[in-house]
Amino acid sequence: MSMSNTQLPPASSHNPELRGRVLVVAGSDSSGGADGLAKTQSRGLEADQKVLAAHGCYAMTATTALTAQNTLGVDDIYHIPADFVKEQIDAVFKDIKPDVIKTGMLASAETIAMVARAFGSYDVNRLVLDPVMVATTGKQLLPSEAVHDLRELLLPQTFIVTPNIPEAMQLLTLPGKEPPEIRNVDDLEELGRSLLQLGPEWVLVKGGHTPFKADGTVAQTDEEKELVYDVLVSADSVTRIKGAYQKSKNTHGTGCSLASAVAANLSMGLHPIQAVKAACAYIEAAIRFAPGYGEGNGPLNHFHSMYTLPFAPDRFVDYLLDRPDVAPVWHKFVNHPFVLAMGSGELPQESFKNYLIQDYLYLVHFARANALASYKAKSMEDIAAGAKIVTHINTEMSLHLDYCASFGISKEQIEATEEHQACTAYTRYVLDVGMSSDWLALQVALAPCLLGYGAIGQALHDEKNLATKREGNTYYKWICNYVAEDYVEAVEELVKIFIHGTKMEIGFWEMFPSA
Ligand SMILES: Cc1ncc(COP(=O)(O)O)c(N)n1
Fold first, then answer.
1. 111 Cβ closer than 6 Å to some ligand 1 atom
2. Largest CB tally within 10 Å, which of 191, 438, 455, 500?
3. Which of the following is catalytic: 254, 343, 434, 452?
4. What pLDDT shows up at residue 14?
5. Which residues form the Pyridoxamine kinase/Phosphomethylpyrimidine kinase domain (predicted)?
6. Is 97 a catalytic site residue?
7. Does residue 100 sit in the same domain as residue 245?
8. Are residues 31 and 86 in the same domain?
């Protein structure tokens, strides 16, 4: 086994966030039908797009044929006129130019000729060609006469061709030449090398159809099936990718999906050897986690390694507060009679005085907890965010002191006051979460205060809120404090921290290969 040292420039140097744009030229597969996380369609364009989406790539399509098929077989094929296939390719190239092209079912000799001409005119140099000929369920998807055109017109333009063993044999079946026999892994390599002669830069022979025994020879019985080999060859390298044989009926579309995963990885700038290895690992897991739908050979799970957050970016707080388990308790907090009485100005002054003192004592510990968050943070960004909130708390406390002074209560008197049990319980709970859990848990424990006061301030301050008394309301200055820019900024900071923390959680999982 040797590794090629060829370093290719990244295919996509445009926007690292968008991981490459891939044009798929293939047939559509009606099977499955349902959309969703696990109910993935198995083959054709639909599978290709799901693989690309799962890799974070941008997929475009040129449809060559529509098929009526399910997990049991292909009932019918409707060919899209070759001219129209070309129009689709032209439209894509005129606008969002693809980094990589992947072809699947090309359906007819006419379409192959048209596609080959189009690729020639656009100087395509990253073509992943999956030479789809016969469906696993048996139907001929490309007339056998057209195999000649595939070989002559497209293989010379191909970067990586990805045949399974029967397809490789058909491509090599030339008049007067016997295709090689597969007895062991060396023969797979030989098959790949023979295909290289037809023009592609790389050949990936997919060995899934021919499982091997542990000793590297072809298995003769089901019991002997232990290993599968995919073999990648180029002019100066051979890479064998060994996998455990998986006894599964859910293997349909593995060919399409593997080639699409290779295309996705190439579009992100991976070297072909890495691109193929990663794609094989992805497919192995897609089979392992297949949902098992259908009567026949069922679909894969293309999204096995993706996890999704139940909210759009920047929408965590909306999501949280709308949840049925959060909404009632949140409503009770922000619409508490104490709050409403502040808005209307009817709150007894004695209550407000006591609240101010307790809130001052609370804020001392709230500042400590934020300082602890800074201590627990791992990046300067998060340390600074914690420090910023501490500074804000300090400003907020001067408002408490001003109010108290106007009531004749000094700072010394505030600090000498005994904490209420509710204040002790709440502040020490937050600090305990901070001490015993991680930074993110601490942020969540801190969130109700910051978010709640922001929400309360906004609701009471809102011009449309007729219950709020603005003139002659002792507490109105208090309300205004929580819509002031620095407070709103502190809330925004918290949301950013939470999103950042969520991303760090994602990063943590990403340390470990999930496929
Ligand atoms: C539209 C379309 N494209 C490709 C295949 C091959 O996939 P499989 O080998 O799983 O039948 C297919 N059956 N249908």
1. no
2. 191
3. 254
4. 38
5. 44-301
6. no
7. yes
8. yes
Tell me, yes or no, if 253 is annotated catalytic.
Answer: yes
Confidence of residue 512 (pLDDT cuts 50, 70, 90): low
Average pLDDT over residues 87-107: 96
Based on the domain organization, do 190 and 323 belong to the same domain?
A: no
Whether residue 149 lies inside any domain: the answer is yes
125 in a structural domain: yes
CATH number of the domain that 188 lies in? 3.40.1190.20
Residue at 310 is within a domain: no
Q: How far apart are CA 442 and CA 440, in angstroms?
A: 5
Read off the pLDDT of residues 61-71 as tens digits, 9 standing for 90 and up: 999 999 999 88
Q: Tell me the residue ranges of DSSP E strands in 177-222.
A: 202-206
Position 3 pLDDT exceeds 50: no
Query: Does any ligand 1 atom lie closer than 6 A to the CB of residue 163?
Result: no
Is the per-residue pLDDT at 35 higher than 60? no
Q: Is 255 in the pocket of ligand 1 (CB under 6 A)?
A: yes
Give residue 242 CA to ligand 1 midpoint distance, Å. 24
Spatial contact of 53 and 41, defined as CB atoms under 8 Å apart: no
Buried b vs exposed e over 170-205: b needs ≥16 C-beta within 10 Å?
Answer: bbbeeeeeebeebeebebbbbbbbbbbebebbbbbb
Q: Is 211 helix (H, G, I), strand (E, B) or coil?
A: coil
Q: Please say if 206 is a catalytic residue.
A: yes
Residue 61 CB less than 6 A away from ligand 1: no
Catalytic pick among 57, 256, 280, 449:
256
CA-to-CA distance for 440 and 84, rounded, in angstroms? 54
Last residue of a domain, one of 288, 306, 324: 288
| Mutation choice for ligand 1 from 31, 141, 287, CB with most ligand atoms inside 8 A | 141
Q: Does the annotation mark 427 as catalytic?
A: no
**pLDDT at residue 308, as a whole number:** 65
Asked whether residue 146 falls in the same domain as residue 188, the answer is: yes
CB distance 396 to 363 below 8 Å:
yes
Task: Show the tokens assigned to 50.
Answer: 């799901």
* Residues 70-94: tens digit of each pLDDT: 888 899 999 999 999 999 999 999 9
Does residue 256 have an active-site annotation?
A: yes
Give the residue, by CA position, lying nearest to ligand 1 atom 4.
44
CB 462 within 8 A of CB 397: no
Of 288, 303, 329, which residue constitutes the final position of a domain? 288
Say whether both 321 and 261 belong to one domain. Answer: no
| Total structural domains within the chain | 2
DSSP 217: B
* pLDDT value, residue 326: 84
507 labelled catalytic: no
Whose Cα sits closest to atom 13 in ligand 1? 135
The more confident residue out of 316 and 17 is 316
Residue 302 pLDDT greater than 90, yes or no: no
For residue 104 and ligand 1, the question of a CB distance below 6 A is answered with yes
Domain span holding position 58: 21-288
Q: Residue 265 domain-assigned?
A: yes
Residues 375 and 281 both lie in one domain: no
